[in-house]
Every structure is written in structure tokens, then in C-alpha cells.
Specification:
It is built from 3 helices and no strands. With 106 residues, it is mostly helical.
């Protein structure tokens, strides 16, 4: 009985720790993807310099907010904060798309 409990507890811990890492990885991966999209827009000329600067500023503010939230929670984000970051990243992604497709060019 003790072996079964220990096995179940270990499996639960592993699944929980994997979920936390993957949520943080998703946030990081999306940040990198959006940075790449901005850089590609600048390279192709679909983003004007002022548009790229504005998007970079928004990205920087989001990164500062994430760092602040993690600092407040011992290095982690709460589920509520993760959902908020996801919404903010969605909004930024839409802004990147709109700026890249608004017809302005360098």
C-alpha cells in the first residue's frame, strides 16, 4: 500500500512540475516568436521604424510585468497571471499582424 501511494505521489509531482515548466516555456516561446515576427517585418519593410519601436516598447513592458509578477511570487506566476499574460500576448500578436498588414512600408 505504501509503495502504491509513493508511486502515485511521485507521478503526480512529476506531472505537476512538467505542467509548470511547459507553461513558462510557452510564454518564453511566444515571446521569441513575436520578436522574430517584428524582426521579419522590419527586414521585409512591412513595419516602419516607428511601428517596430512601438511594438518593441509594448513587448518590453510586458516582459517587465512578467519579471515583476515572478519576483512577487517567488519566481513563479500564478494561474491568474499566466492567463493575463496569455491575453496580453494575444493582444500584442494582433497588433503585430495589424501593423505588418496596414499598407505602410519603409
Amino acid at each position: 500500500m505504501n509503495k502504491l501511494f509513493l508511486t502515485m505521489a511521485t507521478a503526480g509531482w512529476l506531472l505537476a512540475s512538467t505542467g509548470v515548466a511547459s507553461a513558462d516555456d510557452r510564454i518564453h516561446d511566444r515571446k521569441e516568436n513575436q520578436q522574430d515576427r517584428i524582426a521579419q517585418g522590419v527586414k521585409s519593410g512591412s513595419l516602419a521604424p516607428n511601428e517596430a519601436a512601438h511594438l518593441e516598447h509594448k513587448e518590453s513592458n510586458l516582459n517587465k510585468e512578467i519579471r515583476h509578477d515572478r519576483k512577487q511570487n517567488g519566481g513563479n506566476l500564478t494561474n491568474k497571471e499566466k492567463a493575463q499574460v496569455n491575453r496580453q500576448q494575444n493582444r500584442l500578436s494582433k497588433n503585430i499582424y495589424k501593423q505588418k498588414h496596414d499598407g505602410q512600408h519603409q
